[in-house]
């Protein structure tokens, strides 16, 4: 497969990312006048400023399945009355046709209690999607709140000054 450099308008790319997400499928016109349907494969951002330096696009072939990562969104974490909600997996790796790529997966944690956890296999996924992430991998869990032990009063020992003993003689 050959690589072709294209110049993208940064405002248009930002708009696509905001409205469709990082797994957006959109058309790109190349120099010879052809238009290709593409998906974002990788984005390189500047380190110190919020600026995209480079975008790697992949041309979509009709009927070809793609491997992509999709964000996992935790819902109702504020409804967990006891414990601390800890998300251990932020993205799910899947394989599917481009038209079936969701913008995100959601997991509802409102019914979870301390010690409960959700794994990849607990995420509801469309039948047309193959999950590549480990089915037993933890996505989110509810941990007991950390209890800080009270500090015990330690008697402060005054440091010995150099030469103090010799002066006392």
Give an account of the 3D structure:
The protein is 9% helix and 35% strand. By secondary structure, the chain is mostly beta strands. The strands form 3 sheets. It has a 4-stranded mixed β-sheet, with no helix packed on it. A 3-stranded antiparallel β-sheet has the order 1-2-3, covered by helices on one side. A 3-stranded antiparallel β-sheet has the order 5-10-8, with no helix packed on it. Strand 1 and strand 2 form a beta hairpin. The longest helix is centred in the first third of the chain and has 11 residues, at 10-20. It starts with 9 loop residues before the first helix and ends with a helix. The mean pLDDT is 85.
Strand count, sense and barrel status of the largest sheet are: 4 strands, mixed
Low-confidence stretches: none
Q: Which percent band covers the strand fraction?
A: 25-35%
Q: Give the termini distance in whole angstroms.
A: 89 Å
Mean pLDDT: 85
Number of helices: 2
Rounded to the nearest angstrom, the radius of gyration is: 27 Å
Total number of beta strands: 10
The residue fraction in helices comes out at under 10%
Query: What would you call the shape?
Result: flat
Biggest sheet: strands side by side, in what order?
7-4-6-9
Order of helices and strands: HEEEEEEEEEEH
Helix-and-strand structural type = mainly beta
């Amino acid at each position: 497969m050959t690589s072709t450099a294209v110049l993208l308008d940064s405002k248009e790319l930002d708009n696509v990312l905001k409205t469709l997400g990082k797994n957006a499928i959109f058309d790109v016109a190349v120099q010879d006048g052809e238009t290709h349907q593409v998906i974002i494969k990788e984005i390189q951002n500047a380190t110190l400023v919020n600026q995209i330096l480079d975008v790697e696009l992949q041309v979509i072939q009709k009927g070809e399945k793609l491997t992509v990562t999709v964000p996992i969104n935790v819902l109702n974490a504020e409804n967990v009355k006891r414990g601390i909600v800890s998300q251990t997996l932020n993205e799910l790796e899947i394989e599917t046709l481009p038209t079936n790529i969701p913008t995100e997966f959601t997991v509802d944690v409102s019914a979870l209690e301390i010690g409960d956890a959700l794994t990849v296999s607990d995420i509801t996924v469309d039948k047309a999607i193959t999950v590549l992430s480990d089915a037993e991998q933890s996505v989110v869990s509810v941990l007991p709140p950390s209890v800080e032990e009270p500090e015990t009063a330690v008697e402060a020992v005054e440091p010995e000054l150099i030469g103090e003993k010799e002066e006392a003689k």
